[in-house]
What does this fold into?
Amino acid sequence: MNHSPLLRLHPNDNVLVAKVTIALGEAIETFGVRARAQIPAGHKIAACAIAAGEPVRKYDTVIGVASRDLQAGDYVHSHNLTLVDYYRDPAFCTDVRPVAFVPAAERASFMGFVRPDGGVGTRNFIGILSSVNCSATVIHHIAAHFTPERLAAYPHVDGVVAFAQTSGCGMSSPSEHFDVLRRTLAGYARHPNLAGVLIVGLGCERNQVDALVDSQQLEPGRRMRTLVMQDVGGTRRTIEAGIRAIEDMLPDADAARRTRVGAHHLKIGLECGGSDGFSAISANPALGAAMDVLVQHGGTAILSETPEIHGVEFMLTRRAITPAVGQKLLDRLAWWERYAAGQNAQFNGVVGHGNQAGGLANIFEKSLGSAMKGGTTPLRAVYEYAERIDEHGFVFMDSPGYDPVAATGQIASGAQLICFTTGRGSMFGSKPAPTIKLASNTPMYRRLEEDMDINCGVVIDGDMNVPELGQHIFEQILRHASGEPTKSEVLGLGDHEFVPWHLGIVS
It folds into this structure.
């Protein structure tokens, strides 16, 4: 067990990471350095002299250059570390390694809801979607009618949830924004965690309900209903009609039962937010190890948050199964470079306050940890936001780094669960696919245990290694997929985290 207060993550690194706060003047005999400043836990200390302009390496990856001469023991952070872009050889397909698949007869399973179209759900909600912001209040009122007392007669239904959104009109159409919105709504409408769906529109919006249904090849019927407020007769009558429609769906939804199905049906969305200097050491690599196990059992891991692989995209392109897959990832990054040009956005290097306070100096350093969530198996496909995922294995879905938007896209693409790592303690939940929260360090886990599902700080503490924790995470995923509530579900989170990606102008 390593009892040193510092961690060297790779033999070629010229910085070390503090496991605990290091006092000014404290000598660390293990590494032969004396702290020349107070070093907060999760932050970096120079392991040796680093000349101005010399690359600073963490996990043997360049995260910037020293902006001035540094001495061994200096505190290394944004005040003396400059982000400098540099050429990164994509080396398509050079790190592809065959997956050691578990024999079919020995693969893991969980208890899921098998839907008529063959999809498998981990929850059994009825969902209400608004085609436009103008019907948002109506769908909230419909959902609010179905209190726990009224749903008590339907014990196999997890709830009635409203997915309101703030767009649908006042937007350019046709446009990329318009396509993304429709694709997102359709992804929720056909999501296997929803036993029934009601779509409510106003009537004069650009995102017309009938055109939405036709363009996305949705199939109205007992499982999917639509209402248009101007046709039904206004707000009150639409709420009454919506309540009747949900009441009509409830018996069928309640008839659904969990059955044992293979883990190959699972699609897991991977998120991180409020990261810190421990995220790349504990939670993210451990989640990556769990995703390697999931892929070995035939399941699908969905990495997203495109700005948060900027700088380390070579870690993924080298695992792409074809040059075309790797190039598609680079094409999405090139789109982001154009999209974010001239803005103080994360893609251009500026990470959030919580990331900075947690020890991450810039986007390259954050990306280093973010990419680890995807594990080590081949990158099989790259998808656009909310595009339906039809591959098994490790895949990438383009999205912003903003957690609600990224998770919304992953759920629309088919994710039945979200695994969310955090070092600072992000409070997040989602419906209809629940979120599992993974804490990167033990002090934060203990402080926020009511919100955190798994303590990945055991790796920092030396109580468990990354592969062991990865197996533990995988087993807990199966339990939550089978119905065990996550902490965010117990707290009732997820009713307001449906946030489709807004791309276009409002006019």
Q: What stands out?
A: The chain has a mean pLDDT of 96. The chain is about 30% helix and 20% strand. The two ends are 60 Å apart (CA to CA).
